[in-house]
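Sequence of YbaK/aminoacyl-tRNA synthetase-associated domain-containing protein (marine sediment metagenome).
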Amino acid sequence: MGVTEFLDEAGVNYEVSKHKPTFSAQSMAAAIHESGKYVAKPVIVKVDGKYAMCVLAANLKIDLKALKKQMSAKSV
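Predicted 3D structure, token representation.
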């Protein structure tokens, strides 16, 4: 499932913006003249051997210890 499919399923309002290629979500936010806190980035993690997608604001980082606890996982 992609980010837009997830947001559609969750009933979240969003806007898709086109931009030139960038190397980070934060630089992409700058390219569209938007704060990183308003731009979503998908981050793929491996949880107990299975891949999962986390979606967070471009200006944030994943706390792997907190994610491990939240997912009741043995490894992240």
